[in-house]
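Let us walk through a complete example step by step. Step one is to write down the protein sequence. Step two is to encode the small molecule, zinc ion, as a SMILES string so that its atoms and bonds are unambiguous. Step three, shown after the inputs, is the structure prediction itself.
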Amino acid sequence: MADIQKVEACCKKCDSASLTCKYNVFEQADLEIHSWEHKCIDCGYRLTTAYRSDDEDIDFTTEVVDQCPYCGRQGNK
Ligand SMILES: [Zn+2]
Ligand SMILES: [Zn+2]
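Step three: the predicted structure of the complex.
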């Protein structure tokens, strides 16, 4: 049940403006993972970021995990 949308962003590799933005949420017991992926439709170049609730560097109460770090859109669960 990933949330995938086409977004207008510039590919760092080929300068294409056609990218997909994918938001995925994984929840199991105490673990929560929010992952974001931008993928170029033309060359396949990918950028990924994942927020894990068991990562000590991330404070889930203050970190905005349901917003794309690349294009800033809100993710739909
Ligand atoms: Zn590209
Ligand atoms: Zn995005």
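Step four is interpretation. The chain is about 0% helix and 45% strand.
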